[in-house]
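User: Sequence recovery, please. Input:
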């Protein structure tokens, strides 16, 4: 590796002091996330993850199962145990409190900032100290990082990048592979699969900064390559041999899967790469989701794709041309492309169309280039003044970044705040529409069905979701539920039938159709649907209540008695079901049994005026006028 010049060595005593300041700024900018809850995938990896909830006892499971398995059995082919183990340890200390996870997240981000500053001072030791300071500051404040720091689940991104930096710093300082470097890199790979992308970066560090020939550089890194091979073997065992079958990605995960041919997918991949390039400089529109169909498929001769390709070729040419003469620019460009290549979906299709979190590491390359430009173009690269023209530019960008980051942090407070905010930035995503509609439907339910504006909004969002993706089954189901709650039973039936067509084996959606028939007094159709639901194992209290009531209305009293009897046997705590059972018994002249059923209903929910009235009528039919009058008076009391 290249040795530091005397000027850089003279500045060495202040480096640690500067790194502490930068780390403090990085932590401070995310302090407003400490009160946030679990958002998006936080629920799957922490909030409702049974292995994490086992604390220390769950660690063996986390080390031998695929990512998510503590929450569901849909094997997505991922294995990222390190962040999960940390979550389990944090849960062991303070279970069920997001605060500890957010606090650790912020502290880790501060540690990343410190290690990044150290890394940049090492690799750019021949340049002004302002370059690593500026690049680290802009990286720490970049708004695109809000998804990674504010969303606990993205601990995997932070850990992977942190252990890359530790590996690189060890490599640069020792000028050889050490046991520590191998251990750090193994932890990087155990944090996230993307750690494999740092291998070419290590080669770049050896060749460009260490001034080695390519073959000797590769030979030096053989131990790290062996580490990758061992990790890949264990990854394969866990994901394929010890886990359920891998569930393939769908267009709902990655919209490029919907592209008609390879040329279209490639063109769309280049468009995605172009968006990443722009967002790395300025995150003009951030969103937690860019899935189908926020980024539509391009045709094979897309002018946008060709323009991005031309820009990429130009940048790579510049990186090659200035490989030795302008190392910051060359390294920044090559680092960006090395770390973003797979995320762009150009090489192969990943499980996401696009993601702000996937820019966490690549944005470093862009910030190196921006920082170099700010000082070089103002002629202040070698300045010793604390404040100069280049510094003013960097501070201006930093202030803008800070404001946008703090504001964006607020969006990540909860699912409700995030879903509402990102409706404006990713309106073409069916998932964004669906999630916002679900949030509005939850608001309606939480308001005890009084917030009609939220319900109308939910219906609108679900309609937009299915308009974008007609195969979005969950959106059809929720549209049916929202239409039902709004009284549009015809719309509810149509939406739910569409969901049933997409998966005929799912009988749970039948209940919504049955309820719509019931509410529109189409009792024969309702009875048929409810019987089918029971035959398929949908033994819900509501099913028994509505089916029994439909049979009662159709004067099939004996059948109604049977249904209500089975219902109260399965759920002994439902007052309405016991009351309906009493009515069916009373109308079939089983008055003693009816009084017992009414008694159960009143025991669960006292002072029900309608039940007290029915009790009065039942006693009167038995000839017990005194009891009848007693309950009649009770039913008439205020």
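Assistant: Recovered sequence (638 residues):
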């Amino acid at each position: 590796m290249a040795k530091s010049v005397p000027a850089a060595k003279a500045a060495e005593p202040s480096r640690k002091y500067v790194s502490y300041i930068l780390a403090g700024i990085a932590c401070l900018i995310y302090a407003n996330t400490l009160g946030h809850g679990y958002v998006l995938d936080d629920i799957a990896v922490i909030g409702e993850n049974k292995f994490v909830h086992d604390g220390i006892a769950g660690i063996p499971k986390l080390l031998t199962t695929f990512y998510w398995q503590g929450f569901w059995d849909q094997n997505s082919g991922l294995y990222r145990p390190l962040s999960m183990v940390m979550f389990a340890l944090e849960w062991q200390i303070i279970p069920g409190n997001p605060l500890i996870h957010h606090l650790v997240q912020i502290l880790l981000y501060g540690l990343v900032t410190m290690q990044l500053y150290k890394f940049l001072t090492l690799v750019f030791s021949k340049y002004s100290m302002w370059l690593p300071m500026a690049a680290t500051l802009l990286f720490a404040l970049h708004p695109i990082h809000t998804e990674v720091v504010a969303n606990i689940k993205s601990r995997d991104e932070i850990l992977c990048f942190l252990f890359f930096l530790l590996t690189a710093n060890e490599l640069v300082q020792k000028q050889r592979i050490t046991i520590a470097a191998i251990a750090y890199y193994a932890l990087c790979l155990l944090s996230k699969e993307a750690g494999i992308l740092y291998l070419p970066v290590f080669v770049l560090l050896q060749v460009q900064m260490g001034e080695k020939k390519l073959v000797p550089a590769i030979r030096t890194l053989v131990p790290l390559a062996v580490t990758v091979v061992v990790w890949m073997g264990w990854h394969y065992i866990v994901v394929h041999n010890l886990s359920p079958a891998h569930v393939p990605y769908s267009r709902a995960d990655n919209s490029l899967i919907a592209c008609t041919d390879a040329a279209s997918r490639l063109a769309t991949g280049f468009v995605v790469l172009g968006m990443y390039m722009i967002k790395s400089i300025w995150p003009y529109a951030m969103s937690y989701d860019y899935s189908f169909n926020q980024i539509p498929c391009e045709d094979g001769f897309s002018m946008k794709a060709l323009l991005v390709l031309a820009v990429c070729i130009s940048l790579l040419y510049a990186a090659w041309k200035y490989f030795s003469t302008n190392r910051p620019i060359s390294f920044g460009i090559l680092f960006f492309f090395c770390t973003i290549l797979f995320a762009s979906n150009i090489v192969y299709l990943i499980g996401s169309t696009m993601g702000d979190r996937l820019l966490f590491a690549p944005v470093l390359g862009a910030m190196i280039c921006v920082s170099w430009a700010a000082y070089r173009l103002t002629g202040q690269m070698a300045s010793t003044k604390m404040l100069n023209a280049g510094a003013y530019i960097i501070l201006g960008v930093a202030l803008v970044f800070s404001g946008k980051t703090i504001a964006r942090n607020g969006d990540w407070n909860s699912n409700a705040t995030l879903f509402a905010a990102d409706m404006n930035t990713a309106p073409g995503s069916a998932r964004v529409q669906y999630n916002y509609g679900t949030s509005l439907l939850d608001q309606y339910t939480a308001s005890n069905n009084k917030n009609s504006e939220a319900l109308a909004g939910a219906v609108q969002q679900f309609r937009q979701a299915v308009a974008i993706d007609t195969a979005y089954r969950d959106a059809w189901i929720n549209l049916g539920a929202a239409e039902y709650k709004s009284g549009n039973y015809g719309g509810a039936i149509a939406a739910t039938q569409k969901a049933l067509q997409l998966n005929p084996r799912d009988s749970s959606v039948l209940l919504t159709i049955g309820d719509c028939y019931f509410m529109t007094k189409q009792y024969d159709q309702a009875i048929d649907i409810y019987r089918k639901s029971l035959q398929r194992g949908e033994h819900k209290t509501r099913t028994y209540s509505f089916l029994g009531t439909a049979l009662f209305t159709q004067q099939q009293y004996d059948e109604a008695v049977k249904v209500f009897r089975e219902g109260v046997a399965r759920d002994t705590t439902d007052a309405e079901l016991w009351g309906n059972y009493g009515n069916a018994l009373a109308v079939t002249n089983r008055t003693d049994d009816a009084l017992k059923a009414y008694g159960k209903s009143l025991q669960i929910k006292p002072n029900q005026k309608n039940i007290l009235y029915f009790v009065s009528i039942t006693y009167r039919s038995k000839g017990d006028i005194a009891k009848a009058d007693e309950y009649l008076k009770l039913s008439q009391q205020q």
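Residues 429-497 form a domain with the Serine Threonine Protein Phosphatase 5, Tetratricopeptide repeat fold (CATH 1.25.40.10).
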